[in-house]
Design a protein that fits this description.
single chain; 3 helices; 106 residues; 17% helix; 5-stranded mixed beta sheet; alpha+beta; Ubiquitin-like (UB roll); globular
């Protein structure tokens, strides 16, 4: 069960344990992470689950593809490490993952 650290725009940190196989977005919603609205429920059609993956972790995750890449063109506050959390499926290899929620999503 990976432990994920969410860091809010104001620097507040929240660590959560999440089940493997869940999306990062679902783990955030299940744990009341502010800034992860998830309006489309994980359908990759709204970008309200946008996160900035910590630079140390970005290259360890599968690269964004298809619809996610298209949706990332429309996010507010894009960064080189921007991802849609609905497209990141959690695994044990992601234990320690750190993501930041953009200020624009509060």
């Amino acid at each position: 069960m990976p432990r994920i650290t969410f860091i809010a725009a104001d620097g507040a940190r929240k660590e959560v344990d999440a089940a493997c196989g869940l999306s990062l977005m679902q783990a955030a919603v299940n744990n009341g992470i502010a800034g992860i609205v998830a309006e489309c429920g994980g359908a990759c059609s709204c970008a309200t689950c946008h996160v900035h993956v910590d630079a140390e972790w970005y290259g360890k995750l599968p690269a964004p593809e298809g619809m996610e890449k298209d949706m990332l063109e429309f996010v507010m506050e894009p960064q080189p490490t921007s991802r849609l959390s609905c497209q990141i499926k959690l695994s044990d290899a992601m234990d320690g993952l750190v993501v930041h929620t953009p200020k624009s999503q509060y």
